[in-house]
């Protein structure tokens, strides 16, 4: 009997190793990959920081285009911005039972989250000014808790409400350019405005600078850092969208057709052209790029397809230019597409996945 107990103990010791979750040779743990769904991109010091909707942020080395360290942030993070040597990530909690209302602060020297700052429910947009202050647009719960426009003060992290209605915004120089609209009784976008807020003196300059009738629903706003021209992308979520261009004072410039759901505009270094990221329809695999020549005022739709003879992917979420490359976060396809900023030719397609443990029976 004693011998039997000893043999049994030895067998258990062999079977219960760190690669097993129970005392059975059939219960082996294996690594399983799942799409991490990239949502937002920022870049600094030779790295692109990829915010993923599954709750992680990953470093990408811009020299060799290899993925580096990954850290955990809040639930369903969306937008992000760098201020000083810190990365601020807006945690929406949009898919959680209870929405999030925090901004994760990451020290870029250590690549560790140092704190979470409490803001309004469901923060979805975030930008920084040149003074280190961070501005946040939140959506609330779409029912009882309204959205807000808030400022996180540099140094103290004090959060202050700003009495300006906002759906989306961009900051260039000392001005925040704030896009807003309201839904009417038929859920159509109405009362479309672009407000100007002075971030240096912390005051509203104008509640609305545009008088042009805007078709469809405002979807993105980006400001040319050189000319200060304002670009407002609009959508009906089904058909091709449109990009409106306004001068700094709100005077109408021009407009051109984009793909479905224009979500981001970036400008060439020589300021002679721009590229629009078209989100496309979810699960339709029709995300793409529109190229616009600012000299001839001519546009080229399906720019990525024409340059690379393939689709960009499903749901283009964010795009940045850093150095000689453009980085594109394609959400549903869960990839980062890297292209040459001048030629539009693909350099590398990087799959974005998260590895988790799974017990294989």
Automatic annotation (TrEMBL):
Bilayer-crossing regions: none
Residues of the signal peptide: 1-21
Keywords, alphabetical: Signal
Protein name per Swiss-Prot or TrEMBL: Uncharacterized protein
InterPro entries: Host-pathogen_enzymatic-act, N2O_reductase_N, WD40/YVTN_repeat-like_dom_sf
């Amino acid at each position: 009997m004693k011998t039997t107990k000893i043999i049994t103990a030895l067998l258990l010791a062999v079977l219960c190793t760190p690669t097993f979750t129970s005392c059975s040779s059939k219960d082996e743990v294996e690594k399983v990959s799942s799409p991490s769904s990239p949502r937002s991109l920022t870049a600094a010091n030779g790295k692109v920081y990829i915010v993923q909707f599954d709750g992680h942020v990953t470093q990408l080395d811009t020299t060799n285009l290899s993925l580096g360290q990954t850290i955990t942030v809040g639930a369903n993070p969306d937008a992000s911005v760098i201020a000083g040597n810190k990365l601020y990530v807006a945690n929406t909690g949009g898919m959680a039972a209870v929405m999030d209302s925090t901004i994760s602060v990451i020290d870029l020297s250590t690549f560790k989250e140092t704190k979470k700052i409490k803001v309004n429910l469901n923060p979805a947009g975030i930008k920084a000014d040149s003074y280190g202050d961070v501005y946040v647009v939140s959506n609330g719960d779409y029912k009882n808790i309204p959205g807000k426009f808030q400022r996180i003060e540099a140094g103290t992290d004090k959060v202050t409400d700003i009495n300006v209605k906002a759906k989306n915004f961009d900051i260039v120089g000392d001005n925040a350019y704030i896009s807003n609209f309201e839904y009417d009784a038929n859920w159509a976008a109405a009362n479309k405005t672009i407000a100007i807020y002075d971030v240096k003196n912390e005051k509203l300059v104008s509640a609305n600078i545009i008088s042009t009738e805007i078709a469809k629903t405002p979807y993105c706003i980006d400001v040319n850092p050189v000319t200060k021209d304002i670009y407002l992308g609009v959508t009906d979520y089904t058909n091709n969208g449109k990009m409106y261009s306004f001068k700094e004072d709100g005077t109408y410039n021009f407009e051109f057709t984009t793909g479905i759901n224009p979500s981001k505009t970036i400008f060439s270094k020589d300021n002679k052209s721009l590229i629009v990221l078209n989100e496309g329809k979810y699960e339709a695999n029709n995300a793409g790029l529109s190229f616009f020549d600012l000299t001839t005022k001519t546009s080229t739709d399906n720019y990525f397809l024409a340059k690379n003879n393939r689709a960009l992917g499903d749901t283009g979420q964010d795009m940045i230019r850093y150095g000689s490359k453009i980085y594109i976060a394609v959400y549903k396809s869960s990839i980062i597409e890297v292209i040459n900023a001048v030629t539009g030719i693909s350099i590398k397609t990087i799959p974005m996945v998260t590895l988790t443990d799974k017990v294989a029976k």
